[in-house]
Design brief:
This protein is mostly helical. It has seven helices and no strands. The longest helix is centred in the middle third of the chain and has 28 residues.
Length: 201
């Protein structure tokens, strides 16, 4: 919901940094895998009770996620890079609830519910992208991407905001997880209505 609205604010500094990094020989895929490593390390830190470190590594992951796209725009995007980027994003997203689930037995059920909602949201997102691509639909609302990005109530910005809240208020994990899982399910319904309107023959 907020991703497209933030693009005009975050793209200019990211693009400048991307030009600098590309000039130094840094690759987009290298940043993608570096970001994934940082994100998974953040989940591991949370699982072992180092939530402050987990938060720092989550933020570092997001910086890398923004920079890989900026470098790709300079060096030229690739289908393989687009594939790695989305796989790394979803691997990171599910790892954070997993970390909280390992941290405390009380978090196990809400973590499972949240991960399940991420799976449903991801399936709806990718199914929409496949069919939109097959029909030749295009959008740059989220910037130039390797495939069609549909807008939803729960997107990257909202997810990171919830992860930050979980790290700052870990005792509220269950409520935040259930609440955001509900928003993810609403996103699936919203995207399904969008698909019904866009893909009806």
């Amino acid at each position: 919901m907020l991703d497209a609205k933030l693009r005009p604010l975050i793209d200019p500094p990211l693009n400048r940094a991307g030009q600098l990094l590309a000039g130094l020989g840094v690759t987009a895929n290298g940043l993608t895998f570096a970001g994934l490593t940082l994100g998974l390390a953040g989940a591991a830190a949370i699982a072992f009770g180092h939530i402050g470190w987990g938060l720092a590594l989550i933020l570092a992951n997001r910086v890398c996620d923004g920079l890989d796209g900026a470098v790709a725009r300079v060096r030229g995007p690739s289908d393989l890079g687009g594939y790695f980027d989305i796989v790394a994003d979803f691997a990171f997203y599910v790892s954070i609830p997993l970390g909280f689930g390992i941290l405390s037995a009380a978090n196990t059920l809400p973590a499972l519910v949240l991960v399940a909602s991420f799976v449903l949201t991801g399936v709806s997102f990718l199914a929409f992208a496949v069919i939109a691509g097959k029909r030749g639909d295009e959008t740059e609302a989220h910037g130039k991407k390797s495939f069609f990005y549909s807008t939803g109530l729960a997107e990257g910005t909202e997810t990171i905001a919830v992860f930050i809240a979980m790290c700052i208020f870990p005792a509220w994990f269950a409520g935040l997880a259930y609440g955001y899982a509900a928003l993810c399910v609403l996103t699936v319904f919203q995207r399904s209505l969008m698909a019904r309107a866009a893909f009806r023959d």
